[in-house]
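Researcher: Please generate the 3D structure of the following complex. Treat every line as part of one assembly.
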Amino acid sequence: MSDILLENQQARKLIKSLGLPLPVPERLRRASGPYEERPLDTATVVVGGQSAGGTLARTLAHDLARAGAEPIVVGVEDDLAPFREAGEAWGRPPRLVEPGEAPESQRARAIVFDATGIASADELRALYDFFHPWIRRLERSGRVVVIGRPPEDAKTHGAAAARAGLEGFARSVAKEIGANGSTCNSVFVEEGAEARLDAVLRFLLSPRSAFVTAQPLHVRKLVKGDDAPIIRPLDGKVALVTGAARGIGAATAELLAAEGAHVVVLDRPADDGPASQVARKIGGSTLLVDITDPDAPEHICRELCERHGGVDVVVHNAGVTRDKTLGRMKPEWWDQAVRINLGAVVDITARMIDQKVLRDGGRIVCLSSVSGIAGNRGQTNYSASKAGLVGYVRSLAPAVAKRGITINAIAPGFIETRLTAAMPIGLREGARRLSALGQGGQPVDVGQAITFLSTPGSVGVTGGVLRVCGGALIGA
Amino acid sequence: MATPKKNPSPAKKATAKKATAKKAPAKKAPARATTKSSNGKRRAVVVAGVRTPFVKAFAELMELDTIALGVAATRALLDKTGIPRDEIEAIIWGGVVLPANTPNLAREIALDLQLPPSVQGYTVTRACASGMQAITNAVAEIERGEADVIIAGGSESTSNATVPLPAKAVRAVAPIAFGKAKGLNDYIGVLAQLMPLNEVLPKMPKIAERTTGEVMGESAERMARRNEISREAQDVFAVRSHHRAAEAVASGRFDDEITPVEGPDGWVHADTIIRASTSVEQLAKLRPAFAKDGTVTAGNASPLTDGASAVLIMSEDKARALGYEPLAAFRSWSYVGVDPADQLLIGPAISMPNALARAGMGLSDIDLIDIHEAFAAQVLSVTKALGSKAFASERLGRSEAVGEIDDAKLNVHGGSIAIGHPFGATGARMVTTMANELHRTGKATALLGICAAGGLAAGAVMERV
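Model: Done. Output below.
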């Protein structure tokens, strides 16, 4: 069902001119085409935090200049040095702005705060001082990223508290700027993993993260990885996407193919038609398997080995709902949902890893769900399976790290698909508006997040859940 | 430049060869000089170069199209060198705005000059690096043993660029021109369709990037901003270009390189764009041409120009056998591409170090540097990048900067801003001037750099022979 507040120009005008107390959501800026060399070309990015003891200036200067951004550095003359150097190499000279006030009519596409120096509750004040003059200068579909160190690595309990505070700050900023289509996320980067920020910032600061907001991302050095290509990052890679005949799966398959991957489109034999259509469109191949078959893991692994010599990216997207309150639920409904959503994922993944069908440097992405995490009436089976996935990726990540493999879960919120179009209108409207961005996401938004976690550049991110929910109220 | 000595013995040799060729008319491939040069490889050498005066577009040479200009330069080269025509094996020509019906300029020039029909030819196009491309192709073919004598060069007549009629005008006029207009009313109807007039008048061709739609001056403007090149620095550079070129003219340094050309209003003997009297104060008065608060003006950019240049290239052995004194040879060259949407004309900052590396040299081994001046902002951006350690480490993967460019070595006789820039001809002009400079001064090496539309660039290292 189309979103009238988003797509009907007349309705948008009417509500605005009548001054109705209805929030009219902002049309989100989305990326078109494959990964680019300079996703932030000509974008003004305001950077601060050095004066608060931030230690990432060199990394940020390099990453931003190479991505094409034009930096405004909030600080003192000495803070400019690393930005000058990177600017010279990439033709992006920085501008200096003194702390305290934003210059008249200066707008910003993105604001990045290096909070790695914040070590106490009092020092959190630096957030207020930096953001206060700039937050209302953010362009529509703007981006805010707050970067800190992981609380669990802090030397003192006070420092851990301050570090953890960043996440709450970012979540609230996300709610404040969501009406403009802007997002705010926090990133916690382990010491020694700074080089892995580049790909994360390219994702979070670009339109590819349109529906990702109010989320924390953890960047670690746990998994081994080499330098990653920026454009066509999946060249020469084989990707398996389950449930790829339609919706999020199809959108993901297209995005992965656009980055150079050969995509194996897996779906049930009954979905032969749409699966082949997707595969034809992207030059991939089809694999028709019912993943609940006991011999499905063996079958899939054999096919991948024989036809493609292995696999590099696995996206466990296939899933079903069999909703009913617990008392009314039939046992086979419980079994179906848990088997498809969780059991099959565990069995297939285990075999792929044991038999090294998944090559070193591989990426696994499991589709969890916000309602799975939050719990939902009538979804005991579904929630059990989707929350199970969260535990699965957390548990498996350290075990496969040595082989350079990452595994993450994605938890979509309200996404405009066949499933959500069938919801009752009241529920649907509520689900759409109860998020920071005030609207539902598109399958491509989830696909972009999956693609990011499938690239070699996302090597720093593993074992976690990334929500693509537009900052939904539930499930925090 | 020393006029090539013509001793009688090679001339005799040539005649003798002609005789054998007549005896066996079926054999087409001429005998190659097979002796190898000192380093064991065949080497191609620059024997001589000539160009037409470079003249502002839509002025004295407007009536001459790119082929006619090419013919003028090539004829002068033939006269100057006295090369026996049957020794010439090919013409390789560079051009950018090519005539739609006769894009193979090289062949047309050979035919117009009534060279032997066996003088084959082809035309290359690589935007402003086209002339350089023609020359390095000739050098490569000779060094591979495919030929001994090739004329390479390029020409451009911006004045004769095809100006397409807007589709609206074509559609309006077509019924009268090709159809069946009957009465006065039909004609009035057509006239009515032609209003407003500015929509049907042909538009001046623009040097715009196809992918970005950006006019090249806008790209230069952006480079000035990105590399923090001030208006004053650009104007100072432009003035120096004019003053150095004017000195070269006054001293007669260009006399050997330029041939007079007859236009409709008489002979044109010298370049017409160089201004000896210009000053930074004068240039400072000009308004920015591409942006309201910009820094690129008509004074610190190269103008649209008509002109042609031709260079005679031979294998070293052949040149010596024919009694010519070689001027220079190529140690290396490099062509690169950068993203046109970022810094369109920064390429020479990569192609020049590449060429140096291929020659096994550093900047300190170089005595002369010649960089094509599309815009002062672009040259200064390139020299700034070459002097930057950060640029070297990020973009070239080197730990040290390529080096500071010594103004005393850079564009010693001015460049495209002062002399002008007929796109296809500039490469051959630079090669001619550098070859002569090496030969005259006894200096050993020259580094060339050319930026080109599409984010392309050329770099080359020449050495004195």
